Each structure stands twice: as structure tokens, then as C-alpha cells.
Amino acid sequence: MKPERLLRAILPDVLIVQTERRKKKSEKLVKKNYRKKPSGAARLSANDIMTQHKLKAYQDGYALAMAKYGLKRGIVGSEARHTTTAQYYRDLLNQTEDIQENIGLLLAEKERAESELAKIKSEARTEQLKNKATDAMTAIASGVGSLFGSGKLKELEQANGKLQGKIDKRDNQIRLLNEHMRMQEERHSTEKHCQQEIHRQELNMKMKKAVISNKGCGLQD
Taxonomically, which superkingdom (predicted)? Predict the structure, then answer.
């Protein structure tokens, strides 16, 4: 998004002068038959306080006064122009397309995460069943330890420990995936909100253009 430009209107003091009105070069080249006022007659003019030099001084003074609020002076001699209505709508359309593409990617990533989570949960259940079976075997082995000796019991305990480690690892993966899915849902919600805001701005612009168009038709009638 481009930063908004701050515009300040200056209402100059109107001066009473008796000098000849300044003419543009285009006016000097074309002869027009207008009723002229006497050259010494008083008239209202703001030309003397709206010169290029004074307008620049107004901008410099305003920037100096507003510097304490964080407002920076524009680039002197900048050729930057306001964004046209057509360009604004093109940028808005591009932003909408980018947001829709991001939403599609987020949804696809969410589906992959859900599929992986289901797979891990299934594997975790399998590991838990194996762990229960090992516990049962350990209990049996403990009851008849004298028949098998202490070596077999230690092997079963080690197997049980390995299975428990796998289960803990799966549980941690499930927790991380749940956290990842939650973050994806938040991003999806944010993207959706941005798209709705852009759509609202488009509707507002269309309504404003319609109002201006209706006013113009009323003036012509």
C-alpha cells in the first residue's frame, strides 16, 4: 500500500492592488476583445503572495512547524503525481488477486497439515497399543521372572521404554501441528478480513462516483 499524502490548503490574504493584471503567455498571444478597466483602478489580487518562491516558503514553514509531530518535508522538485483512479483500481485488483492466491495456498497447506495430523494420530494409537501389549508382557514376565531369568525382563523393559519414547515424540508432533494449524487459521482469517475491506472500499468508490455522476446530470438539466 502506498502512503497517503497530506495536503494543506492555504487561504491567502487578498491584496488590493492597482497594477496591471498579470497575463499568461497563452493569453498574450491571443487577442481578445474584453472591456478593460482603467489601468489605475483598484482591484483584488493574490498574485503577489502566491508566487512560486512564496509557495515554496509556505511549504518549508509548514514542514518546520509540523516536524515535532513526525511529518517530513516532501522532496523538493519531486515529479511524483497522485495515483489516477484507473491505476488505483488496477492496484486494488492486483491486491485482491494476491490475497485470493494466498488464501488458496493457506487452505491447501491446512489440508496437508490435517492429513499429516491424522496420520500421526493413527501411528500414535498403534504405538499405544504396542505399549499396552508390552506392559502386559512385562507383567507376565515379572510374575514368572524366575523361569526366564532377569535378562529377558530387562529386554522387555527396554522395549517398553523405546515405545514410550516414540509415543512422546508423536504427542509432541501432534502438539506442534495443532499450533501450526491454529496459526494458519489466524492468517486465513486476516487475509479474509483484508479482502472484505478492499471490497468495501470498492463499493464506496463506486457509490461516490455514482453520486457525482447524478449531480452532474442534475446541473446539466
Answer: Bacteria
